[in-house]
Amino acid sequence: MSEEIAPILKEIKEALPDVDENEISKEMDRYLKYGIVATEAKKAIIRKFGGTTQSFTSVGEKKLSELQGNEMNVDVTVKCLSSNERIQKTVNGDKTLVTGLVADSTMIRRFVSWEGHLLEKGSNYCIRGAQAKVFRGEVELSMGSYTKVEDAPEDALSDLDVSKLPRFGNLMEVLLKDVKTGLGNIIIRGKVLNIEKRNIETEKGSKTIFDGIIADDTKRVRFTSWHDFKIETGDVVSVKGAYVKEWRGIPQINFDDRAEIEKLEAVEFDVMKTHRLLAEELIEAGASDVEVAGAIIEIRDGSGLIFRCPECNRALMGGNCSIHGQQEGVTDLRTKVVLDDGTGALFAILNTEITTEILGMGVEECESRFNGDETRVIDLLSEKLLGKEFVMRGNVIRDDFGPTVLPNAVMREDDEYMEEAKALIDVVEVL
Amino acid sequence: MARLRQAAKRVFASEYNLSQHEDRGLEENAPNFVITPLGENVSRIYFIGVMMTKTNNGTDDSPMYRAEVRDPTGTFYLYAGQYQPQALTALAQLEPPTLIGVVGKVRTYVRDDGSFYASVKPEVVFPVDIPQRDRWIISTTKYTMDRIRALKDAMEEDEPTEEGLIEKGHPKRAAVSAVRSVGIYGNVDVDPIKLSLKDALDLVIEGGGESIGEIPKIAQSDGLIKKDEPEVIAKDTDDGTKDIVLEIIKGLSGDKGALYRDIITDCEKKGIDKIQLEETIQELLDEGQVYEPTIGIIKPV
Questions:
Q1: B1: which chain A residues are within 8 Å (Cβ-Cβ)?
Q2: What are the beta bridge partners of residue B35?
Q3: pTM (whole model) above 0.90
Q4: Interval A226-240 mean pLDDT
Q5: Which terminus of chain A is more solvent-facing, meaning fewer CB atoms within 10 Å of its CB: N or C?
């Protein structure tokens, strides 16, 4: 009997405790002979002998922290902390996949349902007949067609205080350049470049939070501390138990009173450097305070002299604001371009100041010089920008249309290149 | 999620023109890729070169430009029609020889004998200066070198993988190209492309980065173009055309004369467009060689 079959036979035996082992093996051989894969044969055999796949011996009620990742049939009582639905393409067509986090008094774990179990955030459930699996090093709860979900008795989780539980996920140390949205429980180290106190309104009333920028040798990242750790500008800290959320497609570090903050002495980071990224590194997620370089290869519609809604500052389309209807527009200048470095395309929106600098004239001079002929402004922008290489510094947001650079500085790339050309010839020779 | 804009790949003509494969996406509106011998998948391309020739294969009202643009390694062939308005407007105003930057989509043509040709549908065309060209040459050289290095390593292995090549220090994009190339082309002779890189860099060094001075200006608005352009560029007034048109009219004329629309059809076959024909007929009428008994009918005298 091959090694792959043995564990499957064991599962069948568990499901059919009253059936003779040899008989099960013989059945399995017959299915295999017809080219049926073992996992499919398993279901058929169990059904044939009157069992159900549910009859995998239940290990009964467990706490989330007790799960090993090999339980086939387990019951848990949990609170749903988050629940997200998405469509997953599979070989059998599109399936609705529900994933999220659940917690009991011991810990937080991820759950996944392939059968559209819609757990509602904040509700308590008894989940019966779930499977515990190991996925990417973490034990997670998997819910299949045989899993039953019921509302939990009211007092079932009275001892649960989610805010006291450790964050979801294995604690791991990451460099700031590797901070990605969705990471749950990370250690980061860096120098706080600035930190500001801010009051916000939450469901539970007013709260004081601390916003700032932290940097290591690899990147600068915005952070929000939901607790006063008395961090000051210039501190070098390690944050244990941070998590990552995104804002306009840019990953941002968050941490609250569950995190452990340690001030580090005698550790320095090179934080002055603005890190230059390739466009291909910004396709998945944006970044704050970075540098990109490439050629401007297209001036996009909506550039040059535009009219803005006096109410909300949105650009008017044919004299209409999408919110406030027809408006007497306020004239403004901006430039929307495509910056491309050969590895990817970035949209960039150059603000009034940068556009004014490029044109060598502001809104009023533009209006009088070109007498309302907007295409001549575009011609001038094209002449100044197309095919020229620029370095842009600022935030790169990421939305459905891709990454967009919102630069606060735009510079011509005009380094001397003759030496580089000569050096490259030598490299080509030995290629 | 909207489909993301494709990068404008930096590829020399020497590599692009050796392409023998394409990848047409199965999904609706999926981008079409030309796969170069070094494995780069090109949907959009950006290059700089000298526009050597420009011909309008359409009409004045609905132009269709064909242009040849030479970079230091070979020639790119451009075809711009009504769906590339920006490129058309620019091409209309630029006269060869002139140094231009071209951003375009790949265009492919497979002849009956199976031979494969990759050309370019320009989206954006603009005049450029020598330093811009030099910078393009340098960055294109670097990307091409990355591809050559990764492909050479890949060809030494029995079953090259992206992971294996990345581990050897190749950038991910070059590793992906190399594995793709091996899968599609098998063994590739990289030497011609390698030699062309040297030609490209020599051009940068010989030119010394000197600017060519004033570069042409382009106006995007149609009104301006019509004003700036000479009314009709080169009136073909030689008697050859007149004789051909007269022959055609005589051939088509029965007792009642020739239908104007038949004359148009036959003239187009001879490469004489409507505007040219109209002018020629006017000349023939003026000279008294033909007359117009009723509107739409031309009859030889």
A1: 400
A2: B21, B41
A3: no
A4: 94
A5: N
